[in-house]
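Shape matters. As here.
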Amino acid sequence: MSRHARPRETVVAVAGGPGGGDGRIGYLETVRALSCILVVCYHAIGNDPDHGVRAAVESWPWWTARAFDLVQMPLFAFVSGRLFALPTVDAAGFGRALGRRLLRLAVPLTVVTVLFLVTMRVSGLGEAPSWPAAHLRSFGHLWFLQSSLLLTLFAAAALWVAPERQGGAAVVLFVVAVVGSITLPDVEGDLFSWRGAWVLAPYFFLGRMVAIAERRRPGSVEGRGGAGALVLLGLLAAAGLAGAVASGHPQVWTAATTAGTIVVALAAILAFVVTRPRWWPLEVIAGASYTIYLLHPLMLAPMRMVVAKLWSGAPVGLVIALSFAAGIVGPWLFHRWVVARVPLAAFLFEGLLPKRAARPGEGAT
């Protein structure tokens, strides 16, 4: 009997991207929703002085966006890694599970890329890339789905090659990813957001390590920390932040800056792991988090323009708050009224295939 045919404990693939999937795990829904909220708020502010509310460098909105940027995508990547699992009992099951996971990423990525390109070309807002460039290179916030596809394929390959050494492989890949992120040279080109995949890899494989530990011994990691653990992680995050800030100008990125930000993100993730916080309002948002992540720019940008048109001198905090609210509520309502009710919409925006109806005689004894 081959090593791939031998029965072994496994969990079928879940969560395809920022959105949910099968087999939800309590606190991860809270983490997923919080990550989504941070991303929307980050984009409501703008990632640089030329976008969003055009906040000046080192102003309070600018620093707020920088703070969110430290943890928002690492949290998403951790959740994806924590929920990543494929059956290795047989090749057919492995292939089907991997195919479903890739579908959940590739279909929404393609659909929303086309939607954004058409919107940009029709409205004349922003500089739209060429069609090939939009699909093959980093394009707005959709870079995360491209990077997630690469991480999924890489993790699946590692799992298939060494199914009996998942724990050791995850540790090695985590270490390699951390070292690689710090030493990654600044090279031209970002084909299919490979740089983003490399940057997110430490958090993805941290999620893999937690998942493997919990599968072998439930409760061995998650929910095991108390006040002492939180204090220690807080000090670790403070040290990482101090190192990142002291490494140079806030707009100059160095290896020391990267190392500091990695420490901050890892400490934040582990704080969630050891405490397993849950809050039902966030879990409500989590159910629509994939749709919110995909479509929020189409909601918050128009709101920002409307506010600017009606009240040119509106306080920047109000503009951010209204844009943020539109970026959360608009996609949430679209998910609730359309994606959750129309199978075609669920396929286009979540990559979910309609459930196959049972054929006559199936399940009969």
Observations:
- The chain has a mean pLDDT of 86.
- The radius of gyration is 21 Å.
- Residues 274 and 284 are 22 Å apart (CA to CA).
